Every structure is written in C-alpha cells, then in structure tokens.
Batch of 4 targets.
Target 1
Amino acid sequence: MPVRPATLIDAAGIAHVHVTSWQDAYRDLLPADFLNRLSVKQRWRQWKNILQVSHGHTLVYEHIEPAGERQIVGFAGLGACRDQDIDSHTTGEIYAFYLASAHWGKGYGATLMRAALELLRELGNERATLWVLRNNQRAIRFYERAGFAADGCTKIETLPGSIEITEMRYWRNIQ
C-alpha cells in the first residue's frame, strides 16, 4: 500500500510537500510574499522535530516512479482532538492534510484520507475533526466528498507577518 507511517527519514519529503502545496493551494488566498518566503529547509527542521517527539501520528503517501524511485507526494498528521469543546477521548483530529498539486484529482487524496480515518478509528475514536481555511473551496469540496460537514465553529489564526486567517471546523463520524 502506498500509505504508510512516516519515519524520520521522511522529514525532507514531507517538508517539500508541505511548502509547495501551501504555495499552490493558497496562491489566491494568502499574500504572495508570505508564500514565497516559506522555506523547505525550515519546514524540514520542524518536521524532523515533530517526527522525533510527537505524540501524534503522521502518514505519508509514497508514490513509486516508473524508474523505481520513491517520492512522498502527500501526508496527513493526526491524533487526539485539540479543541477544548470536544471530548478528545472519542474524537480525533486531522491536524494537517497536504498533497502535492501534481497529484490532485487522481485519487491519492481519497486514499490518504481513508487511511487517516482508519487509523483514527483504530485509535478508538468515534468522530474526526479538521480545520480548513474558510476560502479554500477546493479543500472544502474534497472534505465534503469525504463525508465531513461544517459544524459552525470558526477561529482566527495569526500567521507570521500578522496575517490573519479564518478557519472553519469540519467533522464526521468514523464508526
């Protein structure tokens, strides 16, 4: 199966997908100078740390090229729900879900989502939540096709450079 648990050696591939998918997915949603300043090297250091000390789980989608070379094209970070108004004993959260834009619309995301939801189920969760940028219509359509629905909860996050974004919480049953 192309989806597997991430290991420390995957940090560089995850970082590359993380930065480039932000740059592609948020091109019309966030300031260009912010997106251009995103650094794969900095994100690689963050992912190295996450994979070493995290209590969550990270899955990677590994595509095998025709020449046999393996390439990480997507990842999902997940674990217990972090929201104060939700029971983290029965609800898991997808913290991050990104796929390289060259692989959008080819079924890779659906495969990765099924694996993420199955892992959350195996961890004893009955529901799953995630947060999505309010204006990210492509992601919203994808999550809705995966069975998620907005629950009416929103939050404002501040990115570096004092960029405020509004996120909406989505949820679904997974039992």
Target 2
Amino acid sequence: MTQRYLIVIEGNGSGNYSAYSPDIPGCAATGDTLEECESVMREALALHIESLREHGDEVPQPSSLAAYVEV
C-alpha cells in the first residue's frame, strides 16, 4: 500500500540540501541538488519503512501537514 509522507527539504539554493520527514523520526537524506535530495529521501523512506516492517515495528501513519503563510 502506498502512503504519502510529507518531507521537509532545507537548503539555500547553492547545493547541499537535506531532507527529513516529521512523521518518520530518524530518517533523513542529503543531496547536491533539490532533485537529488528528494530522490534520495524517497529511497530512504522506503528502506526505513521496509526495515520497520521486517522488525515488526509499527509504521507511523502520515499525519503532518504543511502550509505557507504570508506575514
């Protein structure tokens, strides 16, 4: 079953991006470009969730939301 998890990608536009998912503690990834970081994070999430299942641990359900606000 496919789940949709929020990922947060941080970086300043000059490379060296990092990402994490608020719903999956301990899972993070980095990449030289935004696209690479997102791709590596997708793979990291899949492997992390697979490992949780293999060990009989509960897989957290997606619950985080994001919004932009203007101030």
Target 3
Amino acid sequence: MMKAGFLSTILLFLLLSSSSFSSIASGYNMNGSCLQAYDLVLRLRFEEADQLLEQEKNSNPRNNLRIYLENYQDFLRLIITEEESLFEELSANKKTRLAVLSGGDKNSPWHLYVQAQVNLQWAFARLKFGEYTTAAAELNRAYRLLIQNQELFPEFSPNQALLGLMHILIGSIPDRYSWIAQALSLHGTYSQGLTTLKKLLNDKEVGEKYPFLHAEVIFLMSFVTSNFSPFPDESAGMVRLLESSQTQEMILQSPLLIYASAAFYMQQGNNDKALQLLSHRPEGSRYFPFHYLEYLTGVARLNKLDPGARLHFLRFVVSFRGRNFIKSAYQHLAWIELINGNPAGYQSYLKSAALRGYSDIDSDKQAQLEAKKQTLPSVILLKARLLSDGGYYSKALDEMKTTGLTMLETPCEKTEYTYRLARIHHRSGNTEEAINFYRKTIDRGKTLPCYFAANSALQLGNLYRMKHDNKTATAYYKLCLDLEFDEYRNSIHQKARAGLSALKN
C-alpha cells in the first residue's frame, strides 16, 4: 500500500498552469515571455525559465503574473527538495510578493486568485517543515480568498478547480484534526471536489477558454484517485483520460505528469505501464533534479522482484536531502537483501531505516515500525505482497501456494496470509472469494496493531457499495474507522471517510 508522500505536489499544475489565461486587465499580462517561462517551469527547466522571467522583469516590471511565476518556482523547489536551508532562504519572499500582488487590478478574477495561491503554496511548504500554526492561518486565508473570488467571478474556472481540490483535501482531513476544519469553518467533501473537477474536464467551453485546464485537471484527478479515492470503479475513466493520445504527449514532456501518472498506474496494479513512463522521463542537466522518481522507479522494479531496484533506492538515499521516503527506501533495500537470502543485510538496512529520515508519512512510519521488530518477516508473504502490488496476481498466488497458516509464526503473519489471498482475489476479479478472505482477516486481526483487518473492512465497504448495499457498506466503513492499528492509518481512514461521505451524498 504505497502512498505517494508529496501530498503538496497535488497543487503544482494548478499553481502554474492556471496562469496561462491572458487577462486584458493591467497587472495580469500573460504575454509570450511568461507563457514560455510557464512551460519551462512546468518541465522543471528552471534555469531557462529564470532567464525569461528576468527579461520580463526588465521589460514589464508591473506584470503581477511574473511575480506569481517566480513564487511558484520557489514553491516547486521547496516541495521537491524538502531542504530546510532553502526554505529559510526563500521564506522572506512571501511577504514582499503578497504586498505587491495586493495592489493589483481588483476587477480581474486573477487578483484574489493569485493571492490565494501564494498563501496556499506557502502553507503547504510550511507543512513540510513543521510550521503548522502559520500554515493553518495561510490555508484559512487562501480558502477565504477563493470563496470571495468565487462570489465575484462565479464563471472563473481556475478558481473552481482550486476550490474543488480544497474540498477534496478538507473532506479527507483525519478525524483527530477535524476540529481544525470546524473551528475555521472549512467546508468540503471528497465527492463534491471530484464532481467539480470532472465537470471542468468534460466542459468543452471551459476547454476552449482555458485549454490549460485539461492538463491541470488530469494531473489533479490522477493524484487524487491514487491517494484519496475509496472507489476502484473510478479508475476506468482515469485510465481512458491518461491513455488518450493528447494526454500521452503531455505526460512524456513533464516529469511532474510522469510522477502523478506512474503513481496512479502503480496504485491500480499496472506496474509495467508505470515502469514504461518512468524509463522515458525527461532528465539531464537542463532539468531540476526530481530524486523521488528514482525511489518510485525502485518500487516499480521491486514489484517485479527485480534486484536491479537496489540501484534506484541507493541513488535516492545518496542524493536526496529532504525528509520523506528515506526510511521507506532503506526498508525496500532491506527487503531486497531478505529476498536474496541475506538476513544480515536485511538487518543492516533496517538499522539505517531506524536512524535516518523522519516518520512524518505512512510509508516511513511503517518502515520505522518494521525496524523496531526483532523477527524476520516471511519471505513468501513479502514476495506475494510485492507481486500483488505490481498486478502480477497469478505469480503472487503461486507464491502463496508454497506456504500455509501452520508454517507462519506470528498472529500478524497469519492475518496477513488471509489478507494477501483476499487482495489477490479481489484485484483478479474473484469478488466472492475476496469477500470470504476479507471477513476471515477481520475476524483474525481486528485486535492486532497491523493494518490488515482495517483495510479489509475498507475494501468490503467498497465492494458492498458497488453492490448497492449501502447499509452493509456503511457498517464496514465505520468498522474500519473504529479499529485501532498503527500502519497506514492516515491513508486508510481518509478513504473510509470519503466512502461514508459519498454514501451520504
């Protein structure tokens, strides 16, 4: 259950590409230089973009969209690198830029929108570095500006897209933080936000007036579907979007779209498609380093049990200076050693997982928990898990046939055994078999700290929703939220809450 950790990256298309609408109002002039700079920033070719933005500063110093693009580029650098020294260096720019933007043309729909975006960018940057109080204030400010702008310019599609995204995020806030949304009067649900994005994507008039929104909403929907959607049936429409010829061309030109698309395909069990995209990503000295793509490539190759995955994880831990996925990368390196029959190497890499990186996201928390354990995991269950995650279900089932409950030692391993069978049957389309094994998993693991029972309850909620048995679906979603467990708690609970919200609507 891999969950992409660059949650703030979900905004990056929106933050930039929505600027490409040409406003005739003074102060928001998306001219040729800014359009070209936009394209370069989108492709992470920052040095070339800097040259164009400097030219624009000299020739058109009152163009607020140039300031907006400069801030966006700062934001991208921060969320990609996660470097604290860079965060401290760039933080002073926010106040200066907002002061300039606040003096823009108040009759333009971009006036409040760009101010909301700058606040939102810095809020998500601050969340990366633990400045939660300031981030909450900035998120609240951004939300109010967007609501106000929506009232003034209800037909302004970029504003609708960003509000749709915020509704998804608000609707996915973990239960223990829901009081914050209530205190700030933040309102929104997953279904509400997704409906907005779909409407924009399917509206031909919007596509003609704001052609950039096609790429933007595809990015947002692929990321949202991968990380927040509780409903597997939503994926078919997303696949059709991603595999259209127009979208494929856009993806191959953008490391950011490759990131979102590959993560989506991996979540859907289409590992080979993800690897194909990752192997064709644009890279080299012209591009700003996006080290997370090395981690993602390593995960995709390991899902095939390819020992060559080791090189990508090593590249990641050597090159990346940020916070997230470091523990997870060492955990994957440990798995490679275990699969290759080297338990000493497994323990060595797990020691690195315990000592390096942070435990802010689910993947790193799970790696930290495994590092604290003193027993070796079952190699057979590990192989079955990786193969199943990659969509290689028949091979995963073959692995499972080589063991049985009596050969497994711990209660969590015995619970995982029925869980892996449930997942393999579920993703292979054998629904009734999946339901049977999910129920067995809940019975066996509902009092254990491992996540298998909770995710089984979530999946049963999804299956009964698809059967239009809303009463049973609701019961399983609530059971998922009631269970106590340590691993992947945030992502599982987010999807259960989204499921309940959708049933209510």
Target 4
Amino acid sequence: MAKKANPRRYAQAVFEIALEKKKLDLWQSDLQKAVDAVSEGDLLAALESPRIKFEDKSKFLNKRLKKINPLVMNLLLLLITKSDIGIIAEIAREYQLLLNDYRGIKPADVLTALPIEKKDEKELARKLGKMVDAKVELKSRVEPEILGGLVVRVGGKLLDGSTRSKLVALKKELATGEIKP
C-alpha cells in the first residue's frame, strides 16, 4: 500500500522557502488561492484522474491560476504527479499554523450558545492572550447545545465553562451523593 504524503512536511518546506524569500504573506494568499481553485466543482476529481494527461492538468491549472507564485504552481504540479493534490488544503492549514507560530499568534476556538459581540470578543482575546502569553486569534462558533457560557481551546488547553458541562457535573454529584462545596 502506498504511503500517504505528510502535509506537515510539505508545509514546513514551503514555510522555509517563504521565510528565506521573505514572502510569508504572498505564500499564504497563493496557497489559499490554490485551495479555493482546486476545491471548486469537479476540478479536484479531474486533477486526480489518471485518464487526464499531466500536460492537460498543467495547462488547466496555469489558466485557472494565472497570477500565482511559480513556486506554488510547482508545488501543485508536484502534488499532481504524486497523486497527492487532495492534500493541498491540509498543507495550507499547516502552513497557517507555522506562520502563526512564527508570529507568536495562537489560534483559539471559542464555542458559545449565542453570538459574541465584537467588543466582548476583543476582551476575551486579550484575556486569553495573557493566559497563554501570546497574541490570540479567535475563531468563534455558535453551538446552542452548550446551553450557555463558553468552551475555549487555546494552546493545547481546554477551558469548559459551558452550562451543559456544569449540569453534567451536577448530575454526577447528585448520582454519587458526593456534593462538593
């Protein structure tokens, strides 16, 4: 069985090239353009198809992504030859993580029962930043099933202040008869 390519290794190589050439943001945007182009419609299936010649795939990509860094195009063509074009989104995601780490930014996933107002979001990012000693970039999602409060994942930590988790803990305490003060 063929070994699956490691998106992290590709992203690391790409990051090192971007850092050396001082084009971190250009690589980030071009990788995102590539992800957007490849994920549209049946293009991914066509690029993965053994029935379509490599030259045709190359021409189509060049037409679709005219103003893209030639090195990003080379990455896409390499992935096509290795039948790994499907991992381009994972490579872009890993690249973003490396870029954030390089810039001292930690992503934080925030789940709330209701949408957070912008001013509260900024305050939460500031407080979380103090906790993990880094700049925090929030990605918030609304999930009504947590009932209230919030759940935050940042820097390998999980902070669960949701009403749902508190109710589950209370249920356990009541069931075991061990009520904690």
